[in-house]
Design goal:
Elements: H1 4-18, H2 21-37, E1 53-55, E2 61-63, H3 64-68, E3 73-77, H4 84-95, H5 97-102, E4 106-111, H6 115-124, E5 130-133, H7 138-142, E6 146-148, H8 151-159, H9 164-167, E7 174-176, E8 179-183, E9 189-194, H10 204-213
Parallel strand pairs: 3-4, 4-5
Antiparallel strand pairs: 1-2, 3-8, 6-7, 8-9
Helix pairs in contact: 1-4
């Protein structure tokens, strides 16, 4: 089985071959501007993880602090089920789910999409872990991940037939940076990785190693 990072590399190569050069340039520009802005840096290891209560794909409320009673939590924020990089990442986590559970940890994935959209993502990718809906992005904001998409990038997405705001059930064109945290049972962040480049993702095997080492 190829790794997540190998799959992402392959997808990016295909995208470069197929997507118009102007579209690629605008998307690259948006990433560079976001990085330079210093916006949404994300919480760091050693900081307290903000608690939240969010609905899962079936509408059931899930509270982070309650999940932490059962073990450490791997918390991953993704942009939405419309994002191919997110789907690759979610499926990679599914492949590691047994190892995560064996290490005594729980896995929670969060996006700003509506519960209906989250359900579609969960079913499409055959995910057996919690997929939560952060409508309005309050959890993403608490973890310092949310940013406003620039107008020219919104037009690129619209031209591609993608209405991010509709997926999120509002009129806001805001997204979280993809981010991964490992949260200890005491509610402190033990591991944090955030990148302004949405094509860069944390290898789930790296995160599994973190939770496995908690037991040593």
């Amino acid at each position: 089985m190829t790794t997540l990072l190998e799959q992402i590399k392959e997808y990016k190569e295909q995208f470069k071959k197929k997507a118009p050069a102007e579209k690629q340039e605008l998307m690259k520009r948006a990433t560079e501007e976001l990085r330079a802005s210093g916006t949404a840096q994300g919480l760091k290891a050693g900081e307290k993880a903000p608690d939240f209560t969010l609905p899962d794909a079936a509408g059931k409320k899930v509270t982070l602090s309650e999940e932490l009673k059962n073990g450490p939590v791997i918390l991953t924020f993704y942009r939405g089920g419309w994002c191919p990089y997110c789907n690759l990442e979610l499926k990679a986590y599914q492949r590691e789910l047994d190892a995560i559970n064996e290490a005594g940890a729980n896995l929670i994935a969060v996006s700003p999409e509506t519960p209906d959209a989250s359900l579609s993502t969960k079913e499409k990718n055959e995910l057996d872990f919690l997929v939560l809906s952060d409508e309005g992005g309050n959890a993403g904001k608490a973890y310092d991940l949310v940013f406003d998409m620039p107008d020219y990038l919104i037009e690129v997405y619209k031209d591609s037939g993608l209405d991010v705001a509709a997926h999120n059930g509002n009129d806001d064109w805001r997204l979280p940076k993809p981010a991964t945290f490992v949260i200890g049972q005491n509610g402190v962040i033990l591991f944090a990785e955030v990148d302004s480049d949405y094509t860069k993702r944390t290898d789930p095997k790296k995160v599994v190693s973190v939770v496995q080492n908690l037991n040593k």
